[in-house]
Amino acid sequence: MASVISALFKAPSTKEDPGPDSFLIKTDDEKYGLSDQLLRELFENSSDMIMISDFDGTINYLSPNLTKLLGYTVDSFKSQDIARSLVHPDDRKTYYTTFYDVRQTPGKSCSMLGRFKHADGNYVWIEGNVTNMLHKAAANGIVSNFRNITERKNAQEKLLQSEERYRKIAETAQEGIWMSDENMVTVFVNQKMCDLLEYTAEELIAKHTYDFKENPGAKDVFERLERRRLGNIENHESVFITKSGKRIVLEVATNGLFDDNGKFLGTLAMLTDITQRKADEDALKRSEANLSAIIENTTDLVYSLDTQYRIITFNKLFKKTMKEVYSFDVDEGVSTLDLIHTLDPETAEKWRQIYAKALKGDTLNFVNEYPFGDGGKVYLSYSVNPIWNGNEVIGLSCFSRDITRQKLDEIAIKKSEASLRTIFNNIDFSCILIDTDGNIVSFNELAQQFTRRNGDIVLAEGVSILDIVRKDRVPFISKVLDEVKKGKRINYQGNYQHNGVDEWYDMTWFGIKNQDNEHLGYIFTNKNITEEKKSEIEREKITNDLLRRNKALEQFTYIISHNLRAPVANLIGLSSLLKSTDTDSEQLEIATGIDTSANKLDEVIKDLNQILQANEQVSEKLQLVVLPDLIANIKESISHLIEKENVNLICDFCEADSLFTLKSFIHSIFYNLILNSIKYRRVGSSPTVSIKTQKNDNNLVILYQDNGRGIDTIKYKHDLFGLYKRFDASVEGKGMGLFMVKMQVESLGGSINIKSELDKGTEFRLEFPIRTDQDHL
Fold first, then answer.
1. Cα angle at 640 between 636 and 646, to 5 degrees?
2. Which of 276, 307, 318, 508 has its CA 20 to 30 A from that of 228?
3. pLDDT in tens, 208-228
4. Phi, psi torsion values for 220, nearest 5 degrees
């Protein structure tokens, strides 16, 4: 070993030719080569691990600090297959490639980065160099030095994650973020800022911030910049012009950015779009200007009173009407008590009571009917509303409107109710109409029959729906009404008993809305579904019975496959014992027969166990299976067969290369199919297997084809996937492969079909539902 170490660090033979691989300690007047002992100490106490292997990868030397680096002893490490056992699966290709490239060229050196499995089972990041020193006689090997950089990698990963989090915060912020340097040149904008101005980040960066403002006002801009240099935080409004030419108003909050020494680096600005708010403020001002115009142009009489019945505001129509009808001059501050005194005593008292009640906080809406012309009528609606200031009534807002046309329309509507009632009473389900206050507006005969039949309740218009339900149901119905008012449709089923017989009803609540989506009330319907429910219960009973029977069959199979193992093992042992004792030929023949039968029975029990285990695996957790990787694993596991029989495996996973499923099942399916294709290959031809995926709606189709001997599907059409069914006795087998494939495909919710002809190969079509991680088998 000393000679190898010396070869790695040997001193040059002359001063003129020091050599690239020397390692010297120099004094003032001479050079001394490092001793073998010192070199060994350097090797063994270095933070790097040194490994020397020959051309074939056999390890000749490992520095003892291997234990510190990876936790293994030298002997245990040497016994490992490094590439297969220690290198992370994702890094194996790089590992193989690096060592292959290095060993081809003497003196070549390559760096390598990857993950190795530590003795504690975790993977650690390793960085190092691999150098071909096979041409060096003393070393005669490939020299590798490695160091553990896991902490550095973890720190880098955390830094990247931190940067990513801050980037996401900036990119998802609901405010625009704009950073500029000390000269107001843009250095960063987030996506919201780009959305506001309709420019890409590339179009904004390196531009001055005032390039996008409307009339930027250079003086104001630079004055604000100087204040930021002094550390001032400011808010102001600015008008910007978007890329499409749209004018937007933004509220800008600015803050200076400084380094640790207090040097001004630039500006951070948060920008909020207040275009709509500014428009709303302008609209409010306009609305205030328009409010009086609206009041003046309405057909209603509008006026307001203070608590002393003095007039505060009014429109011209009110003033004109009071003058024409009552000869009363209306002005601000005039008391309406003077007007009331001019009315007849009964009418005057009525209005006193109305105003007094409204001043107590009640809103009063009523309609008065007045005779008009020859037998005609006029209808006036009134609305007297308290004006609140917090919890105090400070006045009244009053309106009056001529609703004669509306009342005449209502009369016409009532005339059509008789026709509607006929339709209402002839539908095949109960129906109750309810207003917004929860009071019954209307109902049909079936609804009346239902309430009388189930509770002896008589429906009546104007009665609260909560008053006709059982007290214990009131909280539930109240919650239903609240949900329906929010726009939901509530459906459930109820069970009632009538004369000792169960009856089932399907009940639905939904809302009534007008064309403006305003809530107008509720509709409750129910329909007798007793017959349908009985059928459903019967179906559930049959299903549960089938499940119970299936469970019993599984239990029976379990007992057969497990409880018979011990007796059968005893039979095998006893028969073997009989065969080994001195017996005559007849007894030997009997013992041999018993042994053969017991072994066959043991094989059957093992097969039952295998089937049971396959069924139990359905509860295994679903995972995403990458099909190319799966096929590669299978090829690797049977590589000796593939090489021996020269198997050509062609895969096309372009349309779909993964499936969310049970990995153990899908592995078993492909494993059995590929093994069958090899076992039942056509004499004189190398096996060729083609696997292709297709998408069909929400299903994944896998087409599996081979060029093997094929199966006579007409002759064996009833036994193709049967247990212990074999179609070619020239090859050893038990007839379980296709049975297991079909069982596992169907357990995954899929289907399998076969097409085959003798000497023309076989095609399997497997179809699986496309699942996600939210689905379950």
1. 100
2. 276
3. 888 888 877 667 777 888 888
4. -65, -40
